[in-house]
Each structure stands twice: as structure tokens, then as C-alpha cells.
Amino acid sequence: MFDPVAFIAAKKSGARHPPGQIRSFVQGLVGGEVADYQAAAWAMAVCFKGLDRDETVVLAEEIAASGARMDWALPDGRVVDKHSTGGVGDKVSLVAVPLAAACGLAVPKLSGRGLGITGGTLDKLESIPGMRVGLDESELRAQVAEHGLAIAAQSEAIAPADGILYALRDVTATIDSIPLIAASVMSKKLAGGASTLALDVKCGRGAFMPAYDDAFALAELMAEIGSAAGVTVRAYVSSMDHPLGRAVGNSLEVSEALEALAGEGPPDVVELALTIVAGLLRDSGARPAPRAAREAAGRALASGAAREKFASMVRSQGGDLDGFLADPPHERRRRVEVRSEAEGFVDGIDARAIGALVRSLGGGRLTKEDDVDHGVGIRILAGRGDWVDAPPGGPLAGGRSCPTPAVDRSPIWSRPRSNFLPSRRCRNR
Length: 429
Hints:
By secondary structure, the chain is of the alpha/beta class. It is 45% helix and 14% strand.
């Protein structure tokens, strides 16, 4: 018989959990035999003592097995997925998913909502009038079969043990454990049924992993979990010191993603989307040669096929894309322009400060129950390396808000000693 107290005590003393004990713990968590306070105590013990690679692999697999697992019986078997750990202005899924589908891959993507300073893909999509993200399994399967893609909310039947454990970690200061993060992310991806996975792990001021070494360790561990389960995983570590693109805020980011799908988006967003999709094409076997994979992704973007895939997905999920384009939520908001107090080149933009400001305007949540204002946000007018004039100053940003926000005078834009600070390129495994 499983003893939760002995299980907690073993990890508190630094002992290694046998696979059967981890299985019993997860089953007890879902079945109610393990109390919330016991699960929270175990999570805290893990934060101090850690889990080794094998323990983490077993934990992820058992959490995935705690609920339903998708099985995609599609003709070519090229079912892929993409996951980002989240960042300020990260709208890459809105570009990469339709781009991958336009290249002939099937992409059933289960996404989440924003919490904290990072935006959520579902919140962004819901700025489109009528857009439904709550698809049941039959709707999800039908849409992927017909259109090749879907972006939808995760069902409660997928990895229920993770939902229980994550909710406890969120209120017990046990979020920042690399093994627990890896098991949480990968359990849901394993349950999602894709055979090929791209992971975009963010690092920097605006990410959950500020240090590169920690982000790389997380990427490496998630790739090992996938490999142990027979999933082909390519992991990237990308910079989140600065916001991604020029738009931060739900409807603003949808507009910028549409610009990228039309071949006119910010270079950093387009480059990351092309890199991720080229990797998926290679790893799925659709385009094994690196150059051929990159060229195929580039053609799908340039031809407009990726934008049409996005439009077909929106229509299939009840969204009115024409209505969004004619009257986007951010155009209904009062605009406030921020100007520079000094002249010079822009060295950097604090992603964390920008994300916090958008959240304070109503564009994010302090709790999971909070409503989101899809129209508020910030459009960055002076990016890294741009010159801004002396006072009265060139424009730095244009914000969209309903109430007049309190002004935070802490620096968000910084001046350089050199005129440009390049972003760190993606690193993959």
C-alpha cells in the first residue's frame, strides 16, 4: 500500500524514487488518496532535493497516463506540435502553426491562457469576434483532418494530475523547479499525441528562466523526456530580454501575426517562426534536408498559403477575421504616446517592465479568474538600434488603454554605448 508520508520523507532526505512509487503517487493524486497538503509538501521537497533524469521521465509519463491520450491516425503520420515557455510579445504560435500546416504538416495545438506578464495564445485568439477555442475531441479531430491545424484549449481530460499539481505549485512557491516544469510541459505534450515536437524555451528578463544555463538545462531535460517516449524533439533557447516583435497585447499581437503571415512582420518573429517550422519539416521526415526544409517554409510564407491556413482555422472555429480586420479591439482604445527624454540609440527594452505595464492596463491576469481586455497593449515604435531625437523627443511607444494608467518612471528603454545590441540566436538540440 502506498504511503504518502514515507514518499515525502524519502525525497526530503534526498532518496531516489522507484518508478512504482511515482506511479502510485500520481494515481493517488488523481484518485484523492494523496491529500493536497501532501502533494504540496512533496513538491517543496523536490525543489530542494531535485529529481534525476529517470525520475523526471517516469513522472512525465505517469502524469500523461493519468488521463486521455490522443491518437492521430492520419495518412502520412506527420503530426507535429510546438510549445513555448512564454514571453512578452510572443505571438510565434500564431505564425508557426499555420505555416507548418501550409507545408503539409498536421498541427493539433493545445494552448493555454496568459498568467503573469506573459500573454496566452488563447487570449490572443479570443480578441477575434466569435472565435471558439473550446473544441471537444470530435471537433478537434474533424478540423485537423479537414484543415490541417487547430489551436484550442486543453481538455480537462488531458493530464488531470498535472492540473492538480500545477494549481498547488502556483500557490506554494514551488513553480521554479526545472524537473517539475519539464514534467508538467512534457506530460501534456505526450498526451497530445504528436510524434514530432518543437520546444521554444525563453530566457532573459521577460522569461520564467532568466538565466541561460537554467533555460538550456530545461530544454535539454524536456528533449530527453520526449526521446524516452519515442517523440522526436528539437529544442531552442531564444532570448526574452526584449519583447518579441513590436506589439505587446492581445489584439495588437494578432494584427502583428497577420502582418508576419503576409510577409511584412517584424524580422525576429518571422525568423523564429521559419526556424521552428523548418525544424519540424526536417524532424518529421517531410523535408529531411536542412536547406529544402527552410526553402519550403519560406515558400509557404511568401505565397500566402500560411495566411490562408490561419484564415481557414479562424473560420472553422467560428471567428470573424474580416470583422477583426475592419474593427480591431485596439483601435477602439484611447492612444497615449510615450516620448524619449533624451536622444541616442536604443540599446534595450525591458521585456519584464513592458509585460507588467500591459498587465496593469488590463491586458493580463493577476489570477486565473480575472477578465482580460483584449484591446489594450503597447506598440513599440523605437526598437533596439533605432535613433530617437532629443527632447521633446522621438516616440518610443504608443499604448492603447481605457483608463489613464499610473505612470511608472522606472526606465524601460535604455541608452547604449554602442548603437546596436544583437539578440542571441536560437540554439537547438
